[in-house]
Design goal:
Blueprint lengths: L3 E14 L2 E7 L1 H6 L5 E5 L10 E8 L3 E7 L3 H7 L6 E8 L17 E6 L3 H10 L6 E6 L8 H6 L3 E6 L6 E2 L2 H10 L9 E5 L2 H13 L3 E5 L15 E4 L2 E4 H4 L2 E3 L6
Parallel strand pairs: 7-8, 7-11, 8-9, 9-10, 11-12
Antiparallel strand pairs: 1-2, 1-6, 2-5, 3-4, 3-6, 4-5, 12-15, 13-14
Helix pairs in contact: 5-6
Length: 263
């Protein structure tokens, strides 16, 4: 569908913990047409302060609304956290290219997909998990410490197998989530390894996922995190090198095949 610039009404805007927030707004059209991995650009205030919109992944959808998961990290997201139910938001979306995923299968098989999330990378992967929950995918969630682990209840409610990794060992596997992924792949024979790996998180994590997927001959789709000023490819502020030349994360991504990226 074509991107829309619309004013939408906030349904809820709640603090989860620390600096993490859930926001839901009304939009049947976007909810009906959004694809996991896409994002929206949010104008957080009237006027020009701050000047730029904030890109936020689509976290999930309902029949009449769109849900966002965001972290307060600066002035723009601080202003967004102060919005109340009933307030209007000016948004553009849905933007970007999302994940390609299996819509239906004659033989549901959890080995078809592993999802790897690092930190706020859980945001678009909840939406993707909902779309492929019929195969009960394996979801690996990583964070620095247990207080920063997000969306466990949402993943469990979708019936997937969930394994947690924390850098300090305060919850689940001790180490980086990519170390956990490597350990899981080493324990499986080539025939039993997943067909697809989907990942979102910090660049070092995505680079490691891409390397592991190539080494094990597994297809991977990676959702890149970049500062995106315009959101639709005009400013060229979010380009990344690929084997086909430079591409724009906001327009050509944010989801790319792991094998096409140059790190």
């Amino acid at each position: 569908m074509e991107k829309l610039q619309v004013k939408v009404r906030i349904i809820s805007n709640k603090k989860l913990k620390d600096n993490y927030w859930h926001l839901e707004f009304e939009s049947r059209l976007i909810a009906r047409n959004a694809v996991p991995g896409q994002f929206i650009e949010v104008k957080v205030n009237h006027g020009t302060d701050p000047l730029l919109r904030r890109p936020i992944s689509i976290h999930n959808v309902s029949k009449s609304g769109v849900r966002l998961l965001y972290e307060v990290v600066g002035r723009g997201t601080q202003i967004l956290s102060e919005k109340r139910p009933g307030d209007l938001l000016d948004i553009i979306g849905p933007l970007g290219n999302g994940f390609e995923y299996l819509r239906k299968t004659a033989k549901p098989d959890s080995s078809q997909a592993v999802l790897v999330a690092g930190g706020m990378g859980v945001a678009p992967l909840v939406f993707l998990t909902e779309k492929i929950k019929f195969i009960s995918p394996l979801v690996l969630v990583g964070a620095r410490k247990k207080e920063q682990v997000l969306c466990l209840r949402e993943f469990k409610a979708l019936g997937c197998k969930l394994i947690i990794a924390t850098d300090d060992g305060s919850l689940g596997f001790k180490g980086k989530v990519t170390d956990l992924l490597k350990e899981i792949l080493l324990k499986k024979s080539p025939a039993d390894r997943p067909i697809n790996i989907y990942a979102c998180g910090p660049q070092p994590m995505l680079k490691a996922v891409a390397q592991l997927s190539c080494e094990n001959n597994i297809a991977s789709q990676l959702s890149l995190e970049r500062h995106m000023a315009c959101g639709f490819g005009a400013c060229l502020g979010c380009v990344v090198p690929t084997r086909a030349g430079y591409k724009r994360v906001c327009k050509d991504g944010p989801v790319f095949l792991g094998k096409e990226l140059i790190w």
